[in-house]
């Protein structure tokens, strides 16, 4: 009996280092790794000489089919496949009415809602996914009856729960305290967007009152200390209740200092940042205007350094995209406060972050694999994802580390018709992306029909010390 596919001639990147080896795939799973002559025979052989082979990127923070994103599963996951991303974790919004924020006259939130229903609605919308997807349950109303669903949500393969401390979906510290206790009983993960709501609201109102609508006036309305204040509160509550804590889109030195302090206690605290917080500063608001507007804001050059220091020392574990798709027309507004938050980067995150981390900063491929693939898979209960190893899903990227090209938004698979990386020259290009051993995208676009599947995730096991570096 032979395998289905042999991948030979390339350099494999793992969380430990790089090796000159090939591997064999059977029924979508990696069944052998080693020298070409020791691999089992296979029906097909793919020679990837001159290229790196990376595990598919696992992106645990994307907005597809949401109130804030025009991407459907088809277009959002096409962008993912083009960008070497083979797993995404999207959000199921408890009280979302299904309206788009920019189109709706009133609120896009109902007064109450069921997490299980929201999960079902997302799964029903996802038949055209090109890559595999999981979901986070997103609690968007301060209504304790939602706690009754937590156990069934975990059993449905959704062991992570998202909360906001800001916006009209934000909840109070008291509510978080009660929720975290229940999540701790289930060993589930609390996923937090932390900014101090009253500080952000007051500073936003002051800018509106004094007519400071230029995009360069935006970052001061959501300052680093507001991020750190709310993070400190939420992580304290997680520590008290022994609940796993995952902080999303960390932007600032002030915030990672709070995370580092919490981690020193041996508590179960992890965090992510995003490619834009590692490659851009608030100067982008002068250069790109509202196109670069997202929340929390881009910060200073020192904050960018803090992101890399934290990713290297293990204070932060993951780089996610926080992909949000809007049109250029929607983003083009007179005053920044009328601009929808969010930027799209599912298609560009790997080449942009690779160029920054490997080419500009001299970091090893093992670092790239850890923060883009292994750590997010391990953090969110996906043992079969994020690694090139026997028994893992054969999700991989054929990546040419030497080709230099210019990123252009005209090539977007996402419905977003702009890119904050438009015109950026990077070295290193996604050649082909494979999902469970089958080609899903190459240089020209997605290939074949959508085969992405829903991932019912395990409750993840976290090392109590947190360190995965
Ligand atoms: Zn987000």
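-> sequence recovered:
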């Amino acid at each position: 009996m032979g395998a289905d596919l042999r991948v030979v001639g390339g350099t494999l990147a793992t969380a430990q280092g790089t090796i000159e080896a090939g591997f064999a795939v059977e029924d979508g799973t990696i069944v052998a790794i080693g020298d070409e002559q020791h691999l089992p025979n296979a029906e097909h052989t793919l020679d990837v000489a001159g290229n790196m082979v990376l595990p598919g990127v696992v992106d645990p923070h994307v907005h597809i089919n949401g109130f804030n994103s025009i991407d459907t599963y088809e277009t959002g996951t096409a962008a993912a496949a083009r960008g070497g991303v083979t797993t995404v974790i999207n959000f199921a919004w408890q009280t979302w009415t299904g309206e788009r924020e920019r189109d709706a006259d009133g609120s896009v939130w109902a007064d109450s809602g069921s997490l299980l229903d929201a999960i079902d609605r997302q799964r029903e919308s996802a038949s055209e996914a090109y890559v595999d997807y999981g979901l986070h349950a997103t609690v968007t109303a301060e209504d304790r009856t939602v706690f009754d669903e937590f156990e069934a949500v975990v059993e449905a393969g959704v062991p992570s729960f998202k909360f906001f401390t800001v916006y009209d979906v934000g909840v109070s510290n008291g509510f978080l305290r009660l929720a975290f206790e229940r999540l701790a009983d289930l060993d589930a993960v609390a996923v937090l967007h932390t900014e101090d709501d009253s500080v952000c609201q007051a500073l936003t109102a002051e800018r509106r009152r004094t007519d400071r609508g230029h995009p360069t006036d935006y970052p001061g309305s959501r300052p680093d200390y507001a991020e750190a204040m709310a993070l400190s509160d939420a992580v304290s509550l997680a520590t008290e209740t022994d609940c796993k804590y995952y902080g999303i889109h960390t932007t600032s030195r002030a915030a990672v200092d709070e995370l580092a302090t919490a981690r020193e206690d041996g508590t179960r605290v992890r965090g992510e940042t995003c490619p834009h917080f590692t490659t851009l500063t608030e100067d982008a608001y002068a250069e790109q205007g509202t196109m670069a507007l997202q929340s929390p804001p881009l910060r200073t050059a020192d904050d960018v350094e803090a992101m890399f220091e934290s990713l290297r020392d293990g204070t932060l574990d993951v780089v996610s995209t926080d992909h949000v798709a809007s049109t250029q027309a929607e983003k083009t507004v007179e005053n920044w406060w009328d601009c929808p938050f969010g930027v799209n980067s599912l298609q560009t995150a790997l080449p942009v972050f690779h160029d920054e981390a490997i080419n500009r900063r001299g970091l090893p491929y093992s670092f790239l694999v850890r923060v883009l693939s292994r750590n997010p898979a391990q953090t969110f209960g996906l043992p079969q994802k994020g690694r090139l190893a026997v028994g893992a899903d054969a999700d991989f990227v054929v990546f040419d580390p030497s080709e230099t090209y210019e990123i252009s938004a005209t090539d977007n698979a996402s419905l977003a018709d702009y890119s904050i990386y438009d015109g950026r020259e990077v070295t290193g290009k996604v050649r082909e992306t494979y999902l469970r051993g089958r080609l899903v995208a190459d240089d020209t676009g997605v290939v074949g029909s959508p085969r992405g599947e829903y991932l019912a995730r395990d409750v993840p096991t976290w090392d109590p010390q947190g360190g995965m570096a």
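The first strand starts at residue 3 and ends at 8.
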